[in-house]
Design goal:
Layout: H1 2-8, H2 10-39, E1 45-49, H3 51-65, H4 69-93, E2 96-100, E3 109-110, H5 112-129
Parallel strand pairs: 1-2, 1-3
Helix pairs in contact: 4-5
Length: 130
């Protein structure tokens, strides 16, 4: 008799229907929270690059080559493009906001050496291709 009560009871049917709704609602909320966490942007840190020092090093290297003014202008334009590309790519890959060193008084990490190394590696690769 008790078994028949549970088999035919609307109370039990309502309980299972409502618990299914609750479980699917919780599952949906969990999926939404997971997607929100997965899509959430990565916070960016502020760091610096000593663009002045990089430029001065480039000028010293170019002066040592004793090249013509036209070639110097071309090299300077290529250097500027390469510097900008390297800084943007490094900042994007490392989730950084890179500022000139002169713009930050204290409290940030300096990536000048890393940028200089990356530029020398990319220029070495370009020379190998030519």
């Amino acid at each position: 008799m008790l078994v028949n009560f549970f088999k035919n009871s609307k109370l039990i049917d309502n309980f299972f229907n409502k618990s299914q709704t609750l479980l699917f609602g919780m599952l949906g909320a969990l999926i939404v929270l997971f997607i929100m966490e997965w899509v959430k942007p990565v916070p960016k840190m502020i760091a610096t690059v000593d663009v002045t020092r990089l430029t001065q090093n480039f000028i010293k290297e170019e002066q040592a080559k004793n090249i013509s003014q036209d070639t110097l202008k071309q090299d300077a334009a290529l250097f500027g493009k390469q510097l900008e590309k390297t800084i943007k790519q490094f900042a994007e890959n490392n989730h950084l906001v890179l500022l000139p060193k002169e713009a930050v008084i204290a409290g940030s990490k300096d990536y000048t050496r890393v940028i200089a190394k990356a530029m020398s590696q990319s220029s070495a690769r370009e020379e190998d291709m030519t």
